[in-house]
């Protein structure tokens, strides 16, 4: 069932088949630069640690760069691990189509209508329960949260979400239980937190325990893992959206800073690791820009817009 990313008022529906893009479990070796690249048609950018500064604001320079890109005919997609309800920080800065990819590719939302779900690629509840069971054995002490299309709920020992005071607190098994199969809200992702393990070590343990059943990644500096349906990632959902718009990977420029961006950075024709990025992200990207607090995304967009206006293309 294909995504429909060109019609923002399409009712929400679930996409249960894997996307066409695979999600590698480790970054590829650094890519060799090419002398030139096609003119960009779409910019895909992560938010936290990338487009946003550390205080979670969008700088005036970045706002101006995003608007200039749209005027130059380059579409901008926000591609984030954030849920739709946390997109207010950029909702005023989306132009044209108004869409964003949220929850690491599990949802496409319409920011013009306040975050309406257009597409959902869920983590099936039986699979989520299998993952919970596997991680309880592989990494004792792990606590879980369940991100639904209706909000987040978490276990008693999970770090509380102060922005979600209405959350239900219960065991993951209870949170994932369905009295009637298919009647509950779709699960966008499962979150697993460990109080002691190194973040990258925890990710490796989780992938070894259940990587054949779901997609595992991380974007936090702490030992917090984000778990999606198998084949669901920022890259796979972005690829589907681009295919429906007639945009090739070579016409996409992507930005990111953490492991949940790696697949997207590897897939895009041109990609930039932020100056503050995780070491694995530097290996996955074809280029590097300044850090998020130095407006690294805007630095590149300004150059892309200048190239678009002059009809030239710069180095990758």
Task: Compute the average pLDDT.
Answer: 88
| Main sheet: strand order | 5-4-3-2-1-11-12-13
Radius of gyration: 19 Å
SS elements, strand count:
13
Distance between the termini: 34 Å
Shape: globular
Flag low-confidence runs: 7-28
Q: Please describe the biggest sheet, giving its number of strands, its sense, and whether it closes into a barrel.
A: 8 strands, mixed
Helix segment tally: 10
Helix/strand-derived category reads alpha/beta
Helix and strand sequence:
EHHEHEEEHEEHEHEEHEHEHEH
Q: Beta-strand level of the residues, as a percent range?
A: 15-25%
Helix content: 25-40%
Outline the structure in words.
The protein is built from 10 helices and 13 strands. The model is unreliable at 7-28 (pLDDT under 50). An 8-stranded mixed β-sheet has the order 5-4-3-2-1-11-12-13. It has helices at residues 47-51, 60-71, 88-91, 125-138, 172-176, 199-210, 234-244, 262-267, 279-284, 296-310, and strands at 42-45, 75-79, 99-102, 107-110, 116-120, 143-148, 151-154, 187-193, 214-217, 224-229, 252-256, 270-273, 287-288. By secondary structure, the chain is of the alpha/beta class. Helices cover 28% and strands 19% of the residues. The chain is globular. A hairpin with a 6-residue loop joins β9 and β10.
């Amino acid at each position: 069932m294909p995504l429909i990313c060109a019609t923002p008022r399409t009712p929400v529906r679930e996409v249960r088949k894997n996307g066409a893009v695979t999600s590698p479990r480790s970054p590829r070796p650094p890519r060799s630069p090419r002398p030139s690249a096609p003119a960009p048609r779409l910019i895909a950018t992560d938010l936290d640690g990338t487009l946003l500064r550390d205080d979670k604001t969008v700088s005036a320079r970045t706002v101006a760069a995003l608007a200039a890109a749209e005027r130059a005919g380059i579409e901008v997609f926000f591609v984030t691990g954030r849920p739709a309800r946390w997109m207010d920080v950029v909702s005023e800065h989306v132009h044209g189509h108004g869409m964003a990819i949220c929850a690491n590719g599990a949802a496409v939302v319409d920011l013009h209508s306040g975050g309406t779900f257009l597409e959902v690629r869920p983590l099936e509840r039986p699979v989520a329960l299998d993952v919970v069971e596997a991680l309880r054995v592989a990494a004792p002490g792990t606590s879980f949260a369940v991100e639904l299309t209706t909000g987040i709920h978490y276990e008693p020992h999970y770090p509380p979400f102060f922005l979600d005071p209405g959350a239900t607190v219960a065991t993951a098994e209870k949170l994932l239980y369905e009295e009637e199969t298919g009647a509950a809200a779709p699960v966008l992702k499962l979150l697993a937190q460990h109080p002691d393990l190194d973040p990258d070590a925890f990710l490796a343990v989780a992938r070894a325990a259940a990587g054949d059943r779901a997609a595992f990644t991380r974007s936090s500096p702490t030992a917090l893992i984000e778990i999606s349906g198998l084949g669901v990632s920022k890259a796979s959902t972005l690829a589907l959206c681009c295919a429906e718009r007639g945009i090739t990977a070579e016409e996409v420029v992507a930005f990111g800073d953490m492991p949940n961006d790696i697949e997207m950075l590897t897939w895009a024709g041109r990609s930039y690791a932020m100056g503050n990025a995780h070491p694995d992200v530097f290996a996955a990207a074809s280029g590097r820009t300044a850090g998020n607090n130095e407006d690294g995304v805007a630095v590149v967009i300004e150059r892309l817009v200048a190239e678009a206006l002059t009809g030239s293309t710069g180095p990758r």
